[in-house]
Structures are given as structure tokens and as C-alpha cells.
Amino acid sequence: VRCQHYPPLRALQASAALRRASDEHKKEPWTSSSQQHFDSPPAGHQPEQEPQGPRPSYTGQGGQESEDYESEEQLQHRILTAALEFVPEHGWTAEAIAEGAKTLGLSVAAAGMFHSDGSELILHFVAECNTKLSELLEKEQKLVQLGEAEKKPIDEFLRHAVEARLRMLIPYIEKWPQALSVLLLPRNIPSSLNLLTSMIDDIWHYAGDQSTDFNWYTRRAVLTGIYNTTELVMMQDSSPDFEDTWRFLENRVADAMAMSSTASQVQSTGEAVVQGLMGAAVTVSN
Amino acid sequence: VYQVFESVAKKYDVMNDSMTLGIHRVWKDILMHKMNPSPGTLLLDVAGGTGDIAFRFINYVRSVRERQLQRKLKHQQNLSWQEIFESYQKDKFNSLGDSQVVVCDINREMLKVGKQKAQHLGYSEGLSWVLGNAEELPFDDDKFDVYTIAFGIRNVTRIDLALQEAYRVLKPGGRFLCLEFSHVSNPLLSRLYDLYSFQVIPVLGEVIAGDWKSYQYLVESIRRFPPQEELKAMIEDAGFFKVHYENLNFGIVAIHSGFKL
Questions:
Q1: Which residues contact B202 (CB under 8 A, 6 or more apart)?
Q2: Nearest to residue B117, comparing CAs of B56, B75, B62, B185?
Q3: Interface test with B, best of A71, A74, A97, A108 (most B CBs within 10 A)
Q4: ipTM attached to this prediction
Q5: Would the pLDDT of A132 be above 90?
Q6: CA–CA separation, A219 vs A259, rounded Å?
Q7: Are strands B241-248 and B253-259 parallel, antiparallel or unpaired?
Q8: CA-closest candidate to residue A78, choices A33, A113, A117, A26
């Protein structure tokens, strides 16, 4: 029987020590000037100064909010982000997580916090990619609104969005099939399905309300199908820069568009037929 | 406590097998699986006298290391014959990957038995044997990756001190693992368990080890030991995070785990 428990607020010693250490080593000032400490992955870029949204439940209990405070979730987040760079070498495994923990100055035993099959690492990666995609689409939408860019027709938009998202897999493409199989484990299906559908919804949201004659469920299903099949094609694509994959994508999107016009054709034909029958019935009755 | 284990040391392993009908091996294997150590891990096994956990650790790390090396070799294509030859020389590659285990026990006799066992089974590298008290460990701060105490913490007089020491010697990110007899909640099983413990075990103790009293003490100390939730709270008080426990065999034994974050 496993037991989850959320302890009262306490400053995490390790993160305090790490922060002090990184103060000495990092060139850029790590301590942010804002009172709320924003925890961003320790890459070379400037930590953003905007305060993060509502923190996880830990802060609600009125604990000490010293600059060194970091919740367990944030630490786990950092470890997983650090672990990603070891994935090409070790795969999506606890080893990669252990190496990631090492780079943060933590013991390799910290990988024990996560499941030994690397599920959390993969889910973390997928969530990160989805976030990046949203940000990208958001930026482009702003450009369109400001009039600095043309609004893409729907098929081009979908192609662009799916391609951008799939390109994020390229650095990890060798080990991605392993990741896909882990995502399909019954234990992980709720989370992975959740991430997938929210990503698809996101793309449709930014695609805007263009008349496609699809209703909401059909749209979701169609794009999910396009995304999944393209992903699988990408796994065994060896053409330069994945040209074959993008061509496959183009064809699928075109199919989807054709399907919608076919559907509307069928509908109008159906209406015409019905009207004809009604007319005939009226004539006959007279 | 010292005297109990002095008399018990030589027959310790035999008694373990007969009392638990050999299941203790499975429990210890499960503990090792949970730990999932990667090569390069530094383990401190406290109250680990006869070395059961230490040997399992070495085996585990060795097999992980072998797999790692195999994978590395697979990746390296176009190996020259020279390189292939070299790769077969095990000395070149650290077969343990720099992993080490320090076995610490308060009782010299238990350590002696452990050392003999190690020699007998052929474990030479990566092992150290240290005499020490769990409430006051003879090690520096922030030294170890993993701290284990298997069936030892119930013999410690001040459990909170032992937990504090564990916290002290662990590196940031290090893991605390405790395997111990615990509370059975299922009432039917609890009755059977009590029956077995109080009727059968001391008799076995007398027959096999010639020592009724020690095993009476053992069974009573199990009953007096704090149950799962209480131990979990104590571990958290010592400063550990992400403290979980897992019941094995309906609570006869429980593994508690915590991290120094």
C-alpha cells in the first residue's frame, strides 16, 4: 500500500545549497530581484522575471517563503528537464534521470523518486513540447492580429502546426519508439491521452473558426488521426530532413479537406434528392 | 541489544531462513529492486551485520553495469579487432562502476560473520566493514547516496537519533530505505501471525540456536515497534521528503523510503 503525504512547508535543504553554489558559479545573477522566486530550468538563458502563476498547493499553508524555497514538484521538474539531455545516450530510463540529477548536484539516488521505467520523464517531455507549441502558435497569432503576417489557409496551418510539433522530436527520434510504447502502458494512458487531446484542441483553437463543416468531435478525431499516423511514419523515415514525412502529412491534410467538401457535397445532394422526392409526391397527390 | 546479537550472530542466517520460511530473501530482493541503484552509487548499510543487503547490492550493480557495457558496445560500430579484444578484458572496465557499499554494525561478531561470508562467496571489491552505532555514525556529513537499514531499526534505542544520523550522512538527493517488520491490519492474518510468532518462533530459536530468550525478545520487539504511519511521521520529522511506505505480505514487513531534498 503506497501512501502519499504532502508535508508542511519546509525549505528544501538541497535546493538551498544548490542555489548558493550556483550563485558562485553562474555568470548571470541567479537570485531574481522579484520577491517571488521563479524557478526556470538552469539553461544559459536569462530567467524570466514574470512571477509564475498560482504555485502548487504548498504555498497556501502560510509557510516561510524565503528565497531558497522550492517545492518538491519544482525540484522534480528541474531534475527531469536536466535529464532530457542524457536521453539520446541512455534512453528514456531511470539512468537518464540519475545523470540529470547528478548535473544538478544531487545524488544519483534521487532518480528513485520517479518510476523506474522513465514514464514521468516522457510525460514531462511531452508536456514541455505541447507548451512550446502553444507558445509558438500564440506568437504567430499575435503577428497575424498585428497585421504583420498573413493568415494561413486552414490546411497550411494544420500542416505547419503538426510539422512544428513533430520537429521537436527530432533530437530524440532514435529513442522515441521506446517512449511511445511506454506511453501506451495502461498506467500511463490517462495522462498521455490527456496530453494528446489538449494539444489537438490547442491546434484547433489557434486554427480559428473557419468553415469546415466539421463538428467538434470530428475535428478532434481527424487531426488526432493525422498526427498519430504522421508520427509513426516519422519513426521509420530516413529521408533527408524527413521530407517523406512532411509529404505524407501534406497528403493526409489534403485528404481531410477533401473529405469535408465531400461531406458537404453529399449533404447538398441529399437535400436536392429529398426536395425532388417531395415535389414528386406533391405532384402525384394532385 | 549487544548481548542478544552476540549470541545470535553465528546462527543468524539460519534462524532467518527458518523463521520466515525463506521469504526474507524475497523481501530483501524487493528492497534492492526498489532501490534500483545505478553504478557509481555509494551505499551505507547500517545494522547490516551479515551482509545480506550488501551482497545483493553488489550483484545488482554488477548486472546493471554489464548491461550498460553491452549497450555501449552495440553502439560502437566498426570496431577494430584490437578494440574487440580489449573489450573482453574485464579489468579494463570497472565491473562495479565505482559503486561501493559500507556495512556498519554495532556488533563485532556480526561483522565477523559477514566478512567470512563475503570471503566464502567470493565478494572482494567494493565492500567495507565498519564498527559503529546507528545513533552516532562514524562518518562525515553528505557522504552516501543511499542509506539502508534492514531489520535493524527496531533494535535501536533512540530511533529518532538514528534517523537524524541517517539524514546527516546522506548526500542531497540521497535516499533513506528502511525494511522492517510492521503492523498487520488484516485481523484474520494478524491472529495467525501472532500465533506463529509467539508459539513457533521461540521454539525454533531453542531448537536451532539453543536460545529461547533472544527470540522471545525479538518477537516482543516487533510488537512494540511503531506501525507504518507512525514511523513515516518520524522519518518526516528527521527532515526527509517524499516519504512513502510499501507493505509486503499485508504488513508483516514494510519498506519505508524517504529522500533528503
A1: B212, B215, B216, B219
A2: B56
A3: A108
A4: 0.81
A5: yes
A6: 12
A7: antiparallel
A8: A113
How distant is the Cα of B3 from the closest Cα of chain A, in angstroms? 35
pLDDT in tens, A202-213: 898 888 755 555
Binned at pLDDT 50, 70 and 90, residue A49 comes out as very low
In angstroms, the CA B200 to CA B195 distance is 8
**Is B1-260 CATH 3.40.50.150?**
yes
Contact B180, B209 (CB under 8 A): no
Q: Which domains does chain A have, with CATH numbers?
A: 72-116 (no CATH), 119-274 (1.10.357)
CB contact under 8 A, A95 and B38: yes
The values of phi and psi at residue B133, to 5°, are: -105, 130
Q: At A185, list the grid cell.
A: 502502458
**Which of B175, B243, B245 is opposite residue A109, by nearest beta carbon?**
B175
Alpha carbon of B149 to those of B12, B44, B156, B257: distances in Å? Answer: 16, 9, 11, 11
Q: pTM (2 decimals)? A: 0.76
Cell matching residue B28: 530483501
Instruction: Specify the 3-state DSSP secondary structure of B206.
Output: helix
Distance from CA of A16 to the nearest CA of B (A): 10
Q: Where are the domains of chain B?
A: 1-260
B34–A5 C-beta distance less than 8 A:
no
At B19-75, the pLDDT tens digits run 788 888 999 999 999 999 988 899 999 988 788 899 999 999 999 888 888 877 777
% of chain A with per-residue pLDDT over 70: 73
Contacts of A110 in chain B (CB under 8 A): 173-175, 259, 261
Instruction: Return the C-alpha cell found at A221.
Output: 478525431
| Gyration radius of chain B's alpha carbons | 20
Q: Is A21 on the interface with B (CB under 8 A)?
A: no
Full strand arrangement of the beta sheet holding B42-46: B127-131, B100-105, B42-46, B144-150, B170-181, B253-259, B241-248
**Residue B21: is it exposed, middle or buried by C-beta count within 10 angstroms (0-12/13-18/19+)?**
exposed
